[in-house]
Amino acid sequence: MKKNFIRLLILLSFLGLIAFLFFNDYGLLKYFRLKNEIEALNIQIVATDNKIKELSMEIDSLLINDYKIEKVARERYMMLDENEKAIQVEKSNLKID
After folding, report:
1. Residue pLDDT, tens place only, 27-77
2. Could you list the residue range(s) of the whole structural domain that residue 17 is in?
3. What is the structure's pLDDT at 46?
4. Could you give phi then psi for residue 88, rounded to 5 degrees?
5. What is the rounded CA–CA span in Å between residue 16 and residue 22?
6. Which DSSP string corresponds to 4-68?
7. Residue 84 falls within a domain, yes or no?
8. Contact call for residues 68 and 61 (beta carbons, < 8 A)
9. Is 49 part of any domain?
10. Which pLDDT belongs to residue 1?
């Protein structure tokens, strides 16, 4: 009888310890959730760093290359050269079969 009681007490203590490790505020479940969040944030940091490098290269090319400056001025700001005229083309709804 006493052996069964000691075994039951050890089993309940062990289950309590396992439950404590998993479900407390600093438990394993929270640890794994935070670890996954850190990995996701690190991936986002790498992507943002790559975007910053790409934009820095574009800024450098705009400061140096006259062709790049002209291309951006024409595409983004619809600027024209002195001897050019703007022609607006409307899309038609005609279907050609």
Report:
1. 778 888 899 999 999 999 999 999 999 999 989 888 888 888 888 888 888
2. 2-77
3. 98
4. -100, 125
5. 10
6. HHHHHHHHHHHHHHHHHHHHSTTSHHHHHHHHHHHHHHHHHHHHHHHHHHHHHHHHHHHHH-HHH
7. no
8. yes
9. yes
10. 78
CA-based nearest residue to 81, from 89, 90, 70, 92:
70
pTM above 0.70, yes or no: no
Which are the contacts of 80, defined by CB distance < 8 A and separation ≥ 6? 74, 86
Two structure tokens written together for 92: 């038609």
Q: Tell me, yes or no, whether 88 lies in a domain.
A: no
Please, is 27 exposed, middle or buried when counting C-beta atoms within 10 Å of its C-beta (0-12, 13-18, 19+)? Answer: middle
Whether residue 6 is contained in a domain is answered as: yes
Sign of the four-CA dihedral 36, 38, 40, 43 = negative
Query: What's the total number of domains in the chain?
Result: 1
Q: Determine the pLDDT at residue 26.
A: 78
